[in-house]
Design brief:
The structure holds 2 protein chains of 2 kinds.
Chain A (H helix, E strand, L loop, with lengths): L28 H11 L10 E5 L14 E4 L5 H11 L4 E7 H7 L1 H10 L4 E6 L34 H7 L4 E6 L3 H13 L4 E6 L11 H4 L4 H4 E4 L6 E2 L5 E6 L2 E6 L21 H8 L4 E8 L5 H15 L5 H5 L4 E4 L1
Parallel strand pairs in A: 1-2, 1-3, 3-4, 4-6, 5-6, 7-11
Antiparallel strand pairs in A: 5-11, 8-9, 9-10
Helix pairs in contact in A: 1-6, 3-4
Chain B lengths: L14 E9 L4 H15 L2 E7 L14 E9 L10 E6 L2 H7 L3 E10 L5 H6 L16 E5 L1 H8 L8 H6 L1 H12 L5 H10 L4 H20 L17 E7 H16 L3 E5 L6 H8 L7 E4 L3 H13 L3 E6 L1 H17 L3 E7 L16 H6 L8 E4 L6 H15 L2 E7 H5 L1 E5 L46 E3 L14 H16 L10 E2 L4 E8 L3 H13 L5 E6 L1 E3 L5 H5 L2 E8 L4 H9 L6 E4 L8 H11 L1
Parallel strand pairs in B: 1-4, 4-5, 5-6, 8-9, 8-10, 10-11, 11-13, 12-13, 17-18, 17-20, 20-21
Antiparallel strand pairs in B: 1-3, 2-3, 7-14, 12-19, 16-18
Helix pairs in contact in B: 1-6, 6-8, 7-8, 9-10, 9-14, 11-12, 17-20
Classes of the chains: A alpha/beta, B alpha/beta.
């Protein structure tokens, strides 16, 4: 089923639909949209082979703005629909665009099973730690104490960390990126596309209306270099404006050290291995609060569901005496009435 | 060793109902299936129904652990598994106790006396042994030490443990029944040879026990003349015995091949629908993609995704699962994608009676979604025609670009009957609305003039990139629209689209009488019961009782009103409290409808139906 047609050349305009974008002015969703429109021409895929699927929420308007195939479905269920599309036609590049509520509250069951199965598709979570479209209730990623329309005295429900939940469900690819960082986001989308298996990208997305500034302490451009560590496979885990901070393992914990102090040299700093199968270090990185880990945290190549299915189907087909349904219907215990 | 009581001359019957009952582990389903297949090959018409406990391994000897298999064989047309039985084979006291009610007075019961121990009698809550206390005087009881005789027959076979020996006593019973009905043993011998290919000692053992039972019955002078049932008059052709759920699965396979589409099933296990999944997962050789999802909702949503991508997409479930799928079915209706939803109805509400039959999901199928959300609803009516209606569900979904709910039920899904094998070449053509090129100013909501079905552009096709969704859309462009008049128009278009399916389905037929005093109406899985009751009452001399059975419920056949107008009285019979009749009353308000309803998890019996009909004529 491999397509042999050559891939057309595109610009971001080819992926822009004629629909007026209706997100609130200043929303990070615009950044995600433009980053995706810029990433697609770099993916080497024909636009007729691209499908965007969403559930319900602000993020879920996304497919309408892309000039590709798309479906705006029902709350929490985009993973099921996307899985069906990919299993029906493995040539397609399938994207699930979702939010924290859509993916981890109403769609939580589908979320974990999608990651467990490892179908070759992509999911982008717009995490703004709030319900935007229903106008400001707490979400499964809202913080304890967060005051929202449905928690006027402060939220009492502890949050999920999307990355931690994803690793628990055996995610093979997990990346995190600030909603104000289009350059790296674009590259992460390309890498997610190229990764064979389910890839999950969490975007720390600011909601200007209901949760403004929720990530400012890590994403603001004045602090981000000191508060974030942008991970790259095969490179040392160094961060900070002066590139002098690094991560080391101290017993069973990650520790921030300063290169040049206490005899620490660059040699002592951990080197990021995103492709490692064992999740221990990836889990520590996902849970780290200072610095907040961004970039591709995990990218472990594993057999996909389609590969297993295709191999089984080929084997059954090769060994079967049934080529047409008539072969089956007239086989075995039939008898003649004259 | 053997005694009989109250020997009555056996009636000469055109048809006989036999029921095998015993513990879940006694092999009653296998025994029943063998008797069925052998009789089918002999040329009888057949209808069967298994009845087993929902517990996987219920405690041995308990009343609720009884497993049964009923088969109705005839030299005439047989349309139900039968109400009352002519022969009961009871392998233990619990089986006797729970099934005695069904034995026709004067008819035969075979029991394994070895199982009538104090312990088993206690478990079956018998205070005294029914074989000794005279309570079975109205029946012809054949008492056989079946377990001992089986052991005796196997004493020279090596390599058998005690468990395998006692487990083969069902073959002793089968051997006896084969002799009584003059059946050949060959089919079952073939079965042993295949099943135990690698275990020759089991072939030998089972063959010996089957023969032992057969010759035991033959040499017993106490068993009177064997019944002889001639072959039935059936249309010539190749037949096989098929269960309703398998027929459903095969109908889908045929539809996929006929339409040239790949078949996708998204499903989640639920009784009594799971056998459709079991059947379809086997057929990877036809490229079937059967996806066991994490829940009912993912079952239907994965199917919607596959439909968007161009497959023939199906989801299968039973009542509670249909409730969970409701929102997604509404989406499929709104985005106007072809989708087959199969609901094998069971007793409800809530978890209800999972292993029993009922027709109580009709209104859920019709209306169980938010907003005005019409879909096509059809129902199969026999185990064998599950094949046709599964095919038909796929045809209508593809030709009209809409979800189709196919209702079957536990009774026909688990029942089996002869099926005249249909080659795919005999099946009707299936068109679809796929497009490969964009016309100027095309829209995904461009419609076929006659059916209002929209076009079906699938991902991977250059130039047809488009978005669909659950929001209301402009009726011309397909873009999101909140415009009030547009919404009303779209609501009407979606309803009209389903109504127009009337032009693509057969007319309603009547049987027995075209006009007259009483029209008996049914739908779905009650066809066999109603047909046989109407036939019996007409045979009694009532001549003006007609029967109309609905397979198409939404929309109904065009001539429905015309048929209703030809009878003085109408009675609608359903295994619910009156769901279909409420639809009929609403649509055809000028007619008066009587109704007969039953909500016991059981099919109708002839007696109760005939009694009802007589009240009206």
């Amino acid at each position: 089923m491999e397509t042999t047609t050559t891939v057309k050349k595109y610009t971001f305009k080819d992926f822009t639909s004629d629909q007026e974008v209706r997100w609130c002015p200043g929303c990070d969703d615009y950044v995600i949209l433009r980053s995706m429109q810029k990433a697609l021409p770099e993916m080497g895929v024909n636009k007729e082979d691209v499908v965007f699927i969403s559930g319900i929420g602000c993020s879920s308007r996304f497919p309408y703005y892309m000039d590709t195939y798309g479906m705006h479905t029902i709350h929490g269920r985009a993973p099921g629909i996307a899985s069906g599309i990919k299993l029906a036609n493995p040539n397609l590049s399938v994207w699930i665009m979702t939010g924290d509520g859509d993916s981890m509250a109403i769609g939580g069951n589908h979320f974990i099973h999608l990651l467990r199965r490892n179908i070759d598709l992509n999911m982008v979570i717009f995490n703004n730690e709030i319900y935007g479209l229903t106008k400001g209730q707490f979400s499964p990623t809202s913080l304890i104490g967060q005051k929202t329309k449905s928690s006027p005295y402060g939220n009492t429900q502890p949050p999920f960390s999307p990355g931690e939940l994803a690793l628990g469900a055996n995610a093979r690819f997990f990346a995190r990126i600030g909603g104000n960082n289009p350059k790296d986001m674009t590259q992460i989308f390309i890498d997610a596309h190229n990764f064979k298996g389910t890839s999950l990208v969490e975007v720390l997305q600011n909601c200007v209306i209901f949760n403004d500034g929720c990530f400012t302490d890590v994403t603001d451009k004045n602090v981000k270099e000191d508060r974030q560590i942008f991970l790259e496979h095969g490179k040392p885990m160094i961060f900070g404006k002066n590139k002098d901070k690094g991560l080391v393992l101290n017993k069973l914990k990650l520790e921030v050290v300063t290169i040049g102090e206490n005899g620490i040299t660059q040699e002592d700093i951990l080197v990021h291995d995103a492709k490692e199968e064992a999740k221990t270090l990836h889990h520590m990185l996902v849970c780290l609060e200072y610095p907040l880990a961004t970039g591709i945290i995990r990218s472990f190549s594993d057999v996909t569901l389609e590969e297993r299915e295709n191999a089984l189907t080929a084997q059954v087909k090769a060994n079967s005496k049934f080529k047409k349904t008539d072969d089956l219907f007239f086989s075995g215990e039939t008898y003649e009435v004259k | 060793m053997i005694t009989t009581k109250t020997i009555l001359q056996p009636e000469v019957l055109e048809a006989v109902v036999v029921r095998f009952v015993g513990d879940s582990g006694d092999g009653m389903q296998l025994t029943g299936t063998q008797f069925t297949d052998t009789s089918a090959m002999f040329g009888n018409d057949i209808a069967t129904f298994p009845n087993y406990p929902s517990e996987i391994r219920a405690p041995q000897g308990s009343l609720y652990g009884v497993s049964g298999f009923q088969v109705h064989i005839g030299s005439v047309e047989v349309s139900t598994p039968g109400d009352n039985v002519d022969l009961l084979v009871a392998m233990n006291p619990a089986g006797l106790k729970t099934n005695l009610y069904s034995v026709k007075p004067g008819h035969t019961i075979i029991v394994d006396t070895d199982s009538f121990t104090k312990k088993n009698l206690d478990k079956a809550e018998y205070k005294t042994n029914p074989l000794e206390d005279g309570s079975l005087e109205n029946y012809r009881v054949i008492q056989v030490d079946m377990t001992s005789l089986t052991k005796e027959a196997l004493k020279d076979v090596e390599g058998l443990d005690n468990k395998s020996i006692t487990r083969s006593k069902n073959m002793f019973a089968l051997g006896m029944v084969y002799w009584m009905y003059n059946r050949s043993l060959e089919h079952t011998f073939d079965f042993f040879n295949k099943k135990f290919k690698t275990k020759p000692h089991l072939i030998e053992a089972n063959t010996k026990v089957l023969n032992a039972g057969y010759y035991f019955a033959e040499t017993l002078e106490l068993i009177p003349n064997a019944y002889s049932i001639s072959p039935a008059k059936m249309a010539p052709g190749t037949y096989r015995i098929i269960m309703g759920n398998a027929a459903t699965a095969w109908g889908l396979l045929a539809a996929a091949e006929k339409s040239g589409l790949e078949l996708f099933l998204g499903s989640y296990p639920i009784t009594p629908a799971t056998d459709i999944l079991h059947e379809l997962v086997k057929h990877k050789h036809f490229g079937v993609k059967a996806f066991q999802a994490e829940d009912e909702i993912a079952g239907v949503t994965s199917a919607i995704g596959a439909s968007f991508a161009g497959d023939l997409a199906v989801t299968t479930t039973s009542g509670p699962g249909l409730a969970l799928k409701g929102e997604a079915i509404g989406l499929a209706m709104m985005v106007e994608l072809p989708l087959v939803i199969i609901n094998v109805q069971r007793g409800g509400p809530s978890t209800g009676l999972p292993t029993k039959t009922e027709q109580s999901d009709l209104l859920q199928a019709m209306y169980g979604r938010n907003g005005e959300s019409p879909v096509i609803v059809i129902a199969a009516s026999t185990p064998a025609n599950c094949f046709n209606f599964a095919f038909e569900a796929a045809r209508l979904a593809l030709e009209h670009m809409t979800p189709v709910i196919l209702l079957t039920d536990g009774y026909i899904a688990n029942g089996s009957a002869p099926w005249k094998v249909r080659s795919v070449s005999e099946m009707p053509e299936i068109k679809n609305h796929k497009i490969t090129k964009a016309k100027e100013n095309w829209s995904p909501y461009d419609r076929d003039e006659k059916t209002l079905a929209r076009v079906w552009p699938v991902p991977g096709t250059p130039g047809l990139e488009h978005r669909v969704g659950g929001l209301e859309k402009d009726r011309i462009t397909g873009n999101i629209s909140y415009e009030p008049i547009n919404h009303e128009k779209m609501t009407h278009i979606r309803a009209e689209k389903v109504r127009l399916v009337q032009n693509n389905i057969p007319e309603l037929k009547t049987e027995f009488a075209d006009s007259g005093d009483l029209l008996v109406i049914g739908w779905g899985g009650t066809y066999g019961s109603l047909h046989s009751a109407v036939k019996l009452i007409n045979d009694e001399g009532y001549k003006k009782i007609g029967f109309a059975h609905f397979n198409y419920i939404n929309p109904m056949p065009k001539n429905t009103e015309e048929i209703l107008s030809k009878f003085k009285k109408i009675i609608v019979c359903e295994l619910n409290s009156g769901q279909f009749v409420s639809i009929l009353k609403n649509r055809f308000s000028k007619f008066e409808f009587s109704q007969h309803n039953k909500v016991q998890g059981l099919p109708f019996s002839n007696d109760e139906l005939i009694q009802q009909f007589k009240l009206l004529v």
